[in-house]
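Changelog note: in this version the structure field was regenerated for every chain. One regenerated record is shown below for reference.
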Amino acid sequence: MAIQFSRVISTQPQANDPMFSVRSIELRGFGERASPLVVVDDFRVRGRPFGPHPHAGFSAVTYVFEDSQGSLRSRDSLGGDYVVGSGGLVWTHAGSGMLHEETSADTERELHGLQFFVNLSSRNKSTTPRVSALQGKDVPEWSSEAGDRVRVVVGTFQGVSSRLVPVEPFGLLDVYLQREIAFDLEDGHNAIVYVLGGDVVVRADGREQKVAGGHVLALHGGGRVTFGSDQRAHFLVLSGAEIHEPVVAHGPFIMNDRSQVDAAFARYRSGEMGHLRPRTD
């Protein structure tokens, strides 16, 4: 199946102040080609702006960029309390429902991260919640003689695999490109290419598209994709299987229909999603 290219879109500022700034990828511009992603936000934060909140029907993921001065603290109603530094990730598989709280662990240092929501297919929306944390030092890397470096945060690249395995297949590659790399997109999968710095030329099936820093391209189909640059570039590739099911998102829940959303709210109100222990700091 040939690789299909979307139009290139720019990230959009949603909040911008000294304590909290966000640039969002408006996934609606990609239509079904964004699936299974529902939200992607590049954020910078100081302090502790977010209180406990529930999730159900999807996975909430936070990746801490390598340039982050601060660390992420993630607490959840399963009893987990994780601190993840630069280059690390917390993957919260909410499934049937749970509570969590994610804040900056270092209130005086800026936390720079990517938060994204990965939809779950109907067979996994009611599965048991679980949380996985990965420290930056435990993220495997691939590199080339030309100086290209790929952090395999989730998934597999060129025979290098992350030890974090989600319930449904997904890939997150953090790429520092010096010259060129090749990426194989599986049939029926989508990929979001988010360029943070430099310019990247994306090539597949005789077509090419230049993507500048702060811009995003979606890919769909199956086959070999190459990423090239004549200068150092930094970009992410987020990829997963497209889910061909209705999506009803309301507040912190992502389901297939309104009755499932209502049921999730009922579980939350009755305490079935658990409780967070009070902070001790």
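Spot check on this record: The longest strand covers residues 180-197. The two ends are 54 Å apart (CA to CA).
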